[in-house]
Amino acid sequence: MNKRMSNLKIFVFDGINFVPVARQFCEALNELQTCVMYVDPRTFPIKSFYRIRRAWLRKINKIFSRGYSVCSRLSKHSEKRLRNQILKFKPDILLVVGLSWVLVPEGFLRSLKEQLNCRLILFDTESGNFLCHEKFVHYLSHEINQYDQVVSFSKTMTEYFQSLNIPVTYFPFGFTKQLDVSQECPMQYDICFIGSPNFRRLFILEKLKKYNLVVYGKGWKKFKPFMSQELIKKTIFKSIGGGELIQALKTSKIVLNITNEDFFGIYSGINLRPFEAIAYECFMLTDYSDELAALFDVGQEIATYNSYNDLIEKVDYYLANDELRLRVAKQGHLKYLSRCTWIHRARDFLSIIKN
């Protein structure tokens, strides 16, 4: 049993339920015997006449702002139950993971903070995702400035926010193994890529279509008109998670990570996939960033590429050197065990908020 690290009561608002970040973080806090309540606002009932009200809001925005604002959102799910749960739980900290503006009205969380005299903290997982100018301006003007404290997944964004005198602490992702996979899995593929599409990813994957490659992602259906027939044949047009995702990782010699165009644009480069891969002792090949190199020993615990040609050279090199590839995967897994689990992150988080 872990020693209790905090007497704080933490209410966790999951603003990015499509990835397990908030859920796994809560489990880790629980393991440290912190009193935590997890809520996914998307599970609450949809508001009456939501679609009609949303259509009316869009029309009003078009009339008065000469164009629909992508940030003028009407919260879809009823916040009444959320309010009641927060008031009943009486947290010391109200922690938002991801975003709040698409889920609750502006000012909703701030009013609860003032009513309960608690702290409002953001785990920023999204600031590197806003290539859209309007969304980023909205994030800076209306989202991030409502919090008493922020921890951010991106070192690049942390340094930027600090330059604006916003109290932000760097706080990278972690991962918790969801299933214990101890047996050896026979390799099926040379390269595996799992993720949603964008054109940067498309161009890179087209360079790799000559290999025994598999691509997973439901969103790739919309990209079919822009994909070569050879790449289409290597794509499985569905999203995968849980045991199916682990199976795909474990049966591929190389797990390829291609950061989103927006991550790449700000030289952040650390999404969740590298942490998933090393958790299951898989060989991870990802695009290079200084931020990544600060967390991992590049070439020893994880491998990186800098260009199309460098990627192909690295793929050929590691496919031809099984022993080296397995050694890098092993060292990456040891780094995960020693520093990159959500338990490690939860301890860091409790230390940050105390200080």
Number of domains: 2
Would you tell me the structural class of the helices and strands? alpha/beta
**Extended strand count:** 12
The CATH superfamily name of the largest domain is Glycogen Phosphorylase B
Poorly predicted parts: none
* Secondary structure tally, helices: 15
Reported by name, the CATH topology of the largest domain is Rossmann fold
N- to C-terminal distance: 25 Å
Shape: globular
Helix content: 40-55%
CATH class categorisation of the largest domain: Alpha Beta
Strand % is 15-25%
Structural summary, described in words:
With 355 residues, the chain is of the alpha/beta class. The chain contains 15 helices and 12 strands. The chain folds into 2 domains: 9-44 and 79-174 and 341-354, Rossmann fold (3-Layer(aba) Sandwich); 189-339, Glycogen Phosphorylase B (Rossmann fold, 3-Layer(aba) Sandwich). A 6-stranded parallel sheet has the order 2-1-3-4-5-6, sandwiched between helices. The model has no long low-confidence stretch (mean pLDDT 89).
